[in-house]
Amino acid sequence: MTGLRVLTAGPLTTVQDHGRPGWAHVGVTRSGAADRSAFRLANRLVANEEAAPALEITLGGVTLQADGGPLLVAVTGAPCPISVGGRAQAHRALFSLEPGDVLHLARAPTGLRAYLAVRGGLDVPAQLGSSATDVLSGLGPAPLKDGDVLQVRSGATSFARGWPVTDVAPGRWDAGLKDVVTLTAIPGPRERALSHTGAAGLTDQVWQVSQNSDRVGVRLCGAAVALAPGSGELRSEPVVRGAVQVPPGGEPVLFMADHPVTGGYPVVAVLTQESADLAAQLRPGDHVRIQLGVRPGWADL
Amino acid sequence: MRLLPAGEAAILVELPAAADVLPLAAGLQQQRPAAVTDLVPAERTVLVGFDPAVVSADQIARWIRGTPALARAETASGAVELEVRYDGDDLPGVAEQLGMSVEDVILAHTEVTWTVAFSGFVPGFAYLRPPDDRLFVTRRDSPRARVPAGSVALAAGYAGVYPRASPGGWQLIGRTDATLWDPSRWDEGHSPALLQPGMPVRFTAVS
């Protein structure tokens, strides 16, 4: 049996994969890794399938011990300082854990979510085809707690046949996280709900990320965005990840991985996939600007 | 029908009437290409989710416009039957709001075939639409912090059954023991949700 023993689970550590798409018609949101590009990169570094279950670590403060092994591991996303048995390890790079090695991820100085992939993928029971923890519906495994043991799929933990072939992913992970993060959105289904001043209000100001943000949504604090008269509440309609929804209070919510399937307030814009990944790295207090781009690949209908 | 952009990977189709939703959704489902990841009906809209690495929004839009809606036959045969104990706390209030007796409310609930219009709110929660609006009641002024699992409720022209305990603002008229949501059913080859869009549903009173 090879696995990882959880010595310290941290503030919120969950198993994530690419989620369970295709169930929204019965009220189940896709869920899965909040920052999809960082999650996929972690799996690619350890030569897993991109969708293999991995750990999503919020902020840091996690200590794991290799049970058996060796285990081949990579950490991407928020740059938590990594150490194995007290020796520093690189971010976005491969390293291995010998049996008994203790891996510690300290609190990241920037960003919110780190992804830890193990070669072979985590062996966690699936629900509706996915091992992802959905904090809104309760599907999937419970968040990690101290003392848990995570199994790793066996048979793929060795360096057989020369895999993996790359051992580091170069580049600055935090290229998007400046003093003011710019998120790009394209017009949403209810862009007309914005009044004239409302459209300017959405894009001209610098928003601040609220404490009340989580895997369901990122709430922004700032001057209320004005809606056109009569636009405040509409029939419940399906919403997507990255939706920029404006509730009656006028402060937008950005829908994240565990967003509800439907909503009754206007979605005035939708973040690009890339910006939705970036939004998954925002911490409370971060400053954000929303810029509106052009709809890609659309004829005017 | 209006097609509205909903991000890089979805189009929201808005329909003129609620009755147009299920026929369109059924028509799209019948001719559904692999690149379409989601078909989600709601009250007056259908969301079409797609994989932008495989198809473009324009291609999906053309597919939506070119797919005929399926006329649906109303049928009571094959209806899911839910046994209900009509002892909900809001039943007397509903009767009063409608100017009916409690017995007449139960009769109106059980003598028609309801149709699952769409799902949402929580996994397995289905919005059921009746053939007429005799039972149109408003939501409660103040929602309950906790509605028991299996509660049968009415609001704004719909009936619903709460798959599990949750907060709720609908008018509670009874309870059922039916299992509305069970993810392990999928492992056995059945849908995890008992009620899915398009299904006919009937209620029967039990003591």
Distance between the termini of chain B: 46 Å
> How many DSSP E strands of chain B?
13
How many helices of chain B?
5
Structural class, judged by helices and strands of chain B?
Answer: alpha+beta
Strand order of the largest sheet of chain A: 12-19-16-17-14-13-20
- What's the helical proportion of residues of chain A? under 10%
Low-confidence spans of chain A: pLDDT under 50, at least 5 residues? none
Oligomer: heterodimer
How is the biggest beta sheet of chain A arranged?
7 strands, mixed, barrel
How many DSSP E strands of chain A?
A: 20
Helix content of chain B: 10-25%
Protein architecture, described:
The complex is a heterodimer of chains A (301) and B (207). Chain A contains 3 helices and 20 strands. With 301 residues, chain A is mainly β. A 7-stranded mixed beta barrel of chain A has the order 12-19-16-17-14-13-20. The radius of gyration of chain A is 20 Å and the shape is elongated. Chain B contains 5 helices and 13 strands. Chain B has helices at residues 21-30, 57-66, 91-98, 102-110, 184-187; strands at residues 2-5, 10-14, 36-41, 45-50, 80-84, 114-119, 126-129, 144-147, 151-155, 158-161, 166-168, 171-175, 200-205. Chain B is elongated and about 55 Å long. With 207 residues, chain B is α+β, with helices and mostly antiparallel strands. Chain A binds chain B through residues 21-28, 127-129, 137, 139, 186-190, 235-243, 260-262, 267, 270-273, 295-299, 301, and chain B through 2-10, 12, 14, 37-47, 49, 52, 56-58, 61, 118-125, 183, 186, 191-193, 196-197.
